[in-house]
Amino acid sequence: MTGRRIMTADEIRRAVIRISHEIVEKQAGTAGLVLVGIQRRGVPLAHRLAAAIADHEGATLAVGALDITFYRDDLSKLGQSPLLKGTDVPFEIEGATVVLVDDVLYTGRTVRAAMDALREFGRPRAVRLAVLVDRGHRELPIRADHVGKNVPTSREEIVKVRVSEIDGEDAVDIEHVPAAVAAGSATE
After folding, report:
1. What is the second-level CATH architecture of the domain 9-76+83-154?
2. What per-residue confidence (pLDDT) applies to 86?
């Protein structure tokens, strides 16, 4: 595999700050606003967005974590014992504006699964989507409301997001993989 860096740690930091401002502006404040990160890398990004909003608005937002494993449309391909990452939504979403946070938006299937999983917790007033990277190639009619970086990619490329909380560093790279391998890894 060969790759190239498309976002440095500083670019990720700036994107998170910009997205945090966009979220507050679209909501016209922070009242009724909650953040829910999609496991794995969406969770630390949601916490970073909440910290940025706290810095510039002085408001503390509730942050949750959503494991979409059992809501995926390719669950049968994950084997008999899929790795569960944990859901933690310890607050009411009924009537709230929920911002789903993920690292990469690709086909839209992860976001669809997240919206299905979110229904288990009630009926939000609105659901919005914030992603660090939108790489295109949608298979479902889903778009992000807030995007850190739009990156045109081919299907033979994989976008690798690394966050210090999980990976020890902040970076986003695009790696080129052979077409046969890419066909089997079309996940978001």
Report:
1. 3-Layer(aba) Sandwich (3.40)
2. 86
